[in-house]
Structures are given as C-alpha cells and as structure tokens.
TrEMBL record:
SUPFAM superfamilies: Methyl-accepting chemotaxis protein (MCP) signaling domain. This is Methyl-accepting chemotaxis protein. InterPro entries: Chemotax_Me-accpt_rcpt, HAMP_dom, HlyB_4HB_MCP, MCPsignal_dom. Belongs to the methyl-accepting chemotaxis (MCP) protein family. It comes from Paractinoplanes brasiliensis. GO terms for cellular component: membrane. Residues 231-283 form the HAMP domain.
C-alpha cells in the first residue's frame, strides 16, 4: 500500500471564458444563458416593433399625403366630368330652355365641386416643389377655361380682370393646360407614392436585416455561453467521477481536480476531504493491525514460556508424589511395627530416624514445588496482562471500525465499498475480543488452580513439619516407648492419614499442571487464530492505495 506525501492542495484555475462565470452557481450559469437568449428575443422584438412602427408611420404619412391627395384629384376630375356632361347637355340642339337651365345649374355645381377639391388639394400639398408647377398649370388653365366657357356657352362678357386671349384657340389651349396640369399632378402623386412605397420597402428590408443579424449574433453568443457552461460542467463532473471510480477501486491517492467554485467544485472538495479522511483511517487500521500482530507474537512467546514452567511443575509434582508415596509406605511400616514396639525398640528408633530424614527431604521437595507453583502464578499474571493489552487493542480496533462505518455512511454511495471493509474489521475485532475473553477465563482458571496448588503445598509442608516433629519426639522418647506405646500408635495412625493427604494433594498438583499444559495448548491455538485475524485485517486494508 503506497502513501501520499501529504494533504492535497486544492487549486482553482481560470479558463478562457473567465473565472467569474466559471465560479458562479450552476443555476446562475443556466439562467444566464436563458436570460441572454430572452434578452436577444426582447431586443429583436423591440427592434421589430420599432421598425414596424416606423413603417406604419410611413404608410400613414403616405396615406395622409398621397392617398388623400389622389382623392382630392379624383374628386376634382369627377367635378370636371360632371361639368363636361352638363356642357354637352347644354349644347344639344334639341335642348329645351328648361333643360338648358338644368344643365347650366349642373355646370355651376360641378364648378363648385372642382373649386372645392382644388382648394383642398392646394392646402394639402402646401409648398411642395414637385407639385407646384403642374398645380399652377392646372389653376391657370382652369381659370381661363371657366372664363372662356362662360363666354362661349353662357354668352357672358369677358371679365375686365382677364387679360388672356380669347377665341377657340385660347379656349382649346386653356382646356389643354387644365388637362395636362391635372395629369401632371396625378403623375406627381403616383411618383411620390412610388417613392414612399420604395422607402417603406427599404425600411422593411433594413429592419429585417437588422433583426436577422441581431438574432444571429444573440443566438451565437447564447450558444457559445451554453457550450462553455456545458464544457465546464462536463469537465468537472468527469474529474469528480474519475476520483470516485478510483476510490471505488481502492486508490486513495487520486484527487478530484477542482477548477471552479460552484456546486461541483464544492462536491469535489468534499470528495477530497473524504478521501483524505479515509486514508487516515486506513493508516490507523494498518498501524493497529501491526500492533495486534506483534502483541499476538509476544503472547505466543509468553505462552511458550508458561508451557515450559508448567512442564517443570508437573515433573516436580511427580517427584513430590513419589516422595509422598515413600513417606506413606514408611508410616505404614511404622504403624505396623508399633504393635511389636515392645520387642523392636531399636527397629522403631531406626525407622523413626529414616522417617525424619524422609520428612526433611519432603520439606525440601515441597519448598521447591511451592517455588515452581509461584512461578506458574506469576506467568499466569503475565498472561492476564498481555490479554488485557490484546483486549484494549481489540476495543480500539472495534472503535476505529465503528468510526469508519460512520464515515462511510456519511459518504453515502461513495463509501459503500469501505463500509463493507469496516464491517469486516468490526467483525474481526469482535472475534478477537471473544478470543481474548476466552484466554482471560482460562488464565483465571490456571490462576485459581495455582492458588489451590499453593494452598495444598502449604498444607503438605505443615503436615511434613508435623511428621518431622513426631519423628523427633519418637527418637527422643525411645527409652519411654514401652510406657507410651498406645500414644505412639495413635500418633502413627494420624501420621499415616496425613501422609495419605499429602500424596493426594501432590497428585492434585500434578493434575493441575497437566490441565495447565492443556489450557496453554488452547491458548496457543487462540494466539495463532488472533495472528491470523491480524493478517486478514492487514490484507483487507492493503487493497487501498493511499
């Protein structure tokens, strides 16, 4: 498992689109793109409305000028047509005087219509240079035509204010000026209408071009902004996704490169923090696993030394049992010989000396056995201390596994893989705790058996001491043996019972030593299992690369 050189430094880059926009929240980026497109639409709409309004004003102006002027000219021509019709009716040979009066009235009425239309048209065109010459031509021809017509048809005198020519030629010239003038006016109005229509068409084309260009530029900017936003978001999501995939594969050394400070940047920073926290947890688990493995190895050494001490204790206990059997046999002989005490004082004295020597040897053996059993108790205490260390390590491992489970739960989908590892670590820690608890119980049983053995050996020592005292009393009271035969027999019987107890207790010590050996064998198996669990824990965390 590799290790990184230190915490990841999270840097913020600036792309070509500008760091300010890149650092804005995603909602603001999307809203900015939509807002830009909306502003383009509003701008194009306002521009279109403005240009359409201008076009409408132009059409309204054309209506006010050209259409109304054409209406005045049409009214004027209509009046002239009525006048010509009245003149034809007046000039008919078959016309009666009444018909002539009617025709004359029609001519006067038509003149009024023409004059009114001419006045309206003159007021409408104002000082228009394009219309002024044909208008003057029409007015001049119309004025002369009315005078010459009245002179010709109605036989009216020529007005004094009229200085023009008279006669048919003048009359025809006035009619020509009148007709040419109105034709020129209509041509001028048609020309102005064409100009207004051309101006409206040009305005429409200009407005359409401006709207198309504005729409194209706005949409291009919007598409460019959308492309930059999508590219930035996609790049950051890919970076975070790569870090998460590496984390799922056990690689804790690959960071999520942060380029912006929006929601994705915050998520990448959170992934980096979780990754570093997970790496620290894995480091801690590795350290504790190695400590657990080393402790299990030390515990294996301690149990090996305890096994050697237990074997020595068993050997000493066997020696003590043999000595106790010998003492029991001697006491039995003494008990049998007490019935013949009177005849075998010397034999009794010799046996008493032998019994004293054996008792002294038994005291020595019991003291040696007591020291051995004391060593066994010290070794049991050492085992208990080591087991406490293992228990503390298991509890710490369990706590680390719980913390890892909590961190994995906080990471959500990103921590599922590590949650499984944390669960396995927790199970291994609990199994280690159960194994150390079993060792503690067995060590407690060894300590209890050792205490019982020490107490039994102390009783043996007391009994052997009493036997020694009895033998000394027997040796010193050989001269009085005859008088005290009954008392000696009773004492010898008690000694025989005590020696039997000694033999039983020494046998129990040997049995306890054998039980200690069996318990130590189980402890060795448990230590081996604990070492295997530590190895499995190291294997589980070694899949992570930090």
């Amino acid at each position: 498992m590799s290790s990184s050189g230190g915490p990841i430094q999270i840097t913020v880059r600036r792309n070509a689109a500008g760091g300010w926009l890149a650092d804005r929240p995603i909602a603001m980026k999307i809203f900015s793109t939509v807002l830009l497109v909306a502003l383009v639409g509003v701008l194009v709409g306002v521009l279109g409305i403005t240009r359409m309004a201008n076009l409408g004003d132009g059409l309204q102006q054309m209506k006010a000028q050209n259409v109304e002027n054409m209406g005045h000219l049409a009214t004027l021509r209509g009046g002239m047509a009525k006048m010509f019709r009245g003149m034809m009716q007046f000039s008919l040979a078959s016309a009666t005087p009444a018909a002539k009066v009617t025709a004359g009235n029609a001519i006067r009425a038509a003149d009024a219509v023409v004059n009114e239309a001419l006045a309206d048209y003159t007021a409408a065109v104002g000082d228009s240079a394009a219309r002024q010459a044909p208008l003057n031509q029409f007015v001049e021809g119309w004025t002369a035509y009315q005078i010459l017509r009245n002179v010709t048809i109605f036989n009216e005198p020529v007005p004094a204010s009229y200085t023009g020519a008279t006669g048919n030629e003048a009359y025809a010239a006035a009619a020509a000026n009148m007709n040419n003038g109105i034709d020129a006016l209509q041509a001028a109005e048609s020309s102005e209408a064409d100009k207004a229509a051309a101006a409206g068409a040009a305005s429409y084309r200009s407005a359409r071009l401006v709207m198309i260009l504005s729409l194209a530029i706005g949409l291009s900017i919007g598409l460019l902004l959308a492309f930059l936003v999508v590219r930035t978001v996609k790049r950051q999501v890919a970076s975070v996704g790569g870090a998460l995939n590496a984390l799922a594969d056990g690689d804790l050394a690959k960071p999520a490169e942060v380029q912006i400070r929006d929601e994705i940047g915050a998520m990448a920073a959170a992934v980096n923090r979780a990754r570093m926290g997970l790496a620290d947890t894995v480091h801690a688990i590795v350290g504790n696993s190695r400590t657990l493995d080393q402790s299990s190895q030390r515990l294996a050494g301690v149990t090996a030394r305890i096994a050697v001490s237990a074997q020595e204790t068993a050997a000493q206990a066997n020696v003590a049992a043999a000595a106790a059997d010998e003492v029991s046999s001697n006491v039995s002989n003494v008990s049998a010989g007490s019935e013949q005490m009177g005849a075998s004082i010397r034999e009794i004295s010799q046996n008493a000396n032998d019994a004293a020597q054996v008792a002294s040897e038994a005291v020595t053996v019991v003291e040696t056995t007591n020291e051995t059993v004391q060593k066994l108790g010290d070794s049991s205490t050492e085992i208990g201390n080591v087991v406490k260390v293992i228990t503390a390590i298991a509890e710490q491992t369990n706590l680390l596994a719980l913390n890892a489970t909590i961190e994995a739960a906080r990471a959500g989908e990103m921590g599922k893989g590590f949650a499984v590892v944390a669960s396995e670590v927790k199970d291994l820690a609990q199994e280690t705790a159960r194994a150390t608890g079993d060792i503690s119980n067995r060590v407690a049983a060894i300590q209890s058996d050792t205490a019982n053995a020490v107490e039994a050996i102390a009783q043996i020592n007391d009994i052997i001491t009493r036997i020694n005292d009895y033998q000394l009393t027997i040796a010193s009271a050989v001269e009085q043996q005859t008088a005290t035969t009954s008392e000696m027999s009773r004492s010898v019987a008690e000694a025989a019972g005590g020696v039997a107890n000694i033999a039983t207790n020494v046998t129990n010590v040997a049995t306890s030593a054998q039980a200690t050996n069996a318990t130590l064998a189980e402890a060795d198996a448990t230590v081996a299992e604990l070492s295997g669990l530590a190895s499995e824990l190291l294997t589980a965390v070694n899949r992570f690369r930090v």
